[in-house]
Design brief:
heterodimer, A: Jelly Rolls, 4-stranded antiparallel sheet, globular, disordered N terminus, B: mainly alpha, 17 helices
Amino acid sequence: MAAVRRNRKVVWTLSDQTREVTISSLAQVPLFQRLSPVEIQKLEAITARRKFAAGTAVFFQDDPSDSFYVVVAGSAKVFQTSEDGQDRILNTLRPGESVGELAMIEGLPRQLSVQTLEETEMLVVERKDFMEFARQHPEVLWKTCQALCERVRQLMGSVLDMSFRDVPYRVLQVFQQLTQRHGIAEGDGWRVRLGLSTRELASMVGASEDSVSRLLDRFQTDGLLRRSGEDWIVPDRRALERALEYAGQ
Amino acid sequence: MTRKRLLLAGAGLGLLAPSLALAHERFIRHALKQPLNDLFFRQQPGGILGMHPDMLQIGILATLNLTGFLVVWFMRDALDHFVRLNLLSRLRGGLQRTVHNVGAFLIDRPVRVGWFYSFGEWAVIMFLRSPALVLMYSATNDSLVMPSYPLEPSSATIFKFIQVFLAILILTQTWLPLAGALIFGTWIYLFRWGPFVAVDALPVVTVGFVYAMSPWQSHKLSITRLNPLQTRIVRIVLGLGFFILGWTKIYNHDLTAGVGDNYPQVMNDPLVGLFAFGTDPALRRETWVLSFAAAEIMSGFMLMTGVFTRLWCTIMLWVFTKLMLVDFGWDEIPHIYPIGALLAVMTSNYLGTEFGAVQRKEREMRMSSPLVKRLALVAAASVAIAFLAVIPMLYFLTFTDRSLLR
């Protein structure tokens, strides 16, 4: 057992096996891919692990950006809430993906909320520790820059889709991304176990719940999708991709 | 302000100039039942800072109270961090979100809930339109803007019509910049009867700023939100009004005590009771005046500077509603206007603070300094701010001559 000391108090006690998992999770994070094994170990020393039950908010919009998170296991949704309380899901997170690092560097209140979709384990790095680490390893800031550029590109693509693509295309695209990112291959197709409701799908697509509900019925009739309890099943990924191509024409 | 708006402000002033508010005494009963000990409020030989010990105690308690609120305010990020890690993380789903929203309400962060947003829209509509109700009420009571300022009979009719015209502009949201100019003009005109009269009406001016900042096509728009600048102006002016009114309550202590004599139930207030705790029972009315004023000074100061704005708005809403419905009755119905203003500020998601510098320093220090050092900085800043907000003016008032008031 090894005790990790931070802020003059023991914040976590990890077994060697858990440390290995943490190190391997950190090494997978795009932000830290250029770091050497020794540097990853140093990073591990300022990292804590936290488990969140399903449906727990990791942080809320407008909270201070005092830490960033890396998903080790499970999944979470990233969403924005408008002033009148309407949620819009922007993204879903899967193992290896990080969230909160850009807001943390900027130091301004968070612009997004993150809520787990299932039991999720995350690594947490506090702002002051990360800033100190980044001072010693400036290449991390370059990677952060790259991540920022990627986010901007994603956002621009999303704006373009919202402006020029119709709702059926956007619904199919969301399912294509969900299958790629969270789909589990099973006998009857690709299962997405995120428990996403029609309302949440509508918020991801940026359309009304009614219109998305009608489209989901249509796609189920066409055999592109199937509902199984709280999960969604894509019986044939290639058929979904073809439908997306046609919808995009 | 554009030249056109300045001209309109001048026109408003000119229109209302001939109206005469003959008296500016409070509309509610305020005759003293027995004389107050005037010496209590004056310089005392041998006392610390020349103050009566009970006066000094109330001043120190108000300063300490203010210091406590400021310390918690400046450390709220650290407290929020603790609550998030130790309480919020144990909850989930809707309950977690509700607790988060309650916390956000208490520390003036945006509250992103549908009903709160709708309530905020309603509050802004009430805030922007309630002055029309006050004007209509004044017109039917032969007074100017508030029942405290009776109109001269010879010119009352024309100014009653002007007030009704202004009320119609406000109710229909037509030419709001003109409505704003008329309100500013009226307020400046009130200085004719001295600064106390104008200060008494200062809260009314807040809406004038919002009207003046509205577009001329206001009747075509549904104005249901205040922008960050409007929210800040309304908060500062409203708070400043209460802050100055608190000091005038000490200066004009006979009037304040007279209201207490006629409405003894207003003397029962927990915060006022706290300030007066342990003071000489023989000076109950004198210490009540001081404690009552200190409570108003403190709440006005915190509203003005944006420290727990929502909390203080809620407390003041309670006080005003109680004054209107329980203590004074229909005489205080114009209080519907500050209630609208407080609701509009309370439901705003654009609340800021005027102590950004201390807050920024504390956040910077979180990166490198231990909690004790941050706490020391915050405590020193809070003591200095609270002391400057209360003690110098209290000391200054012990030298003032009140004979002019009688």
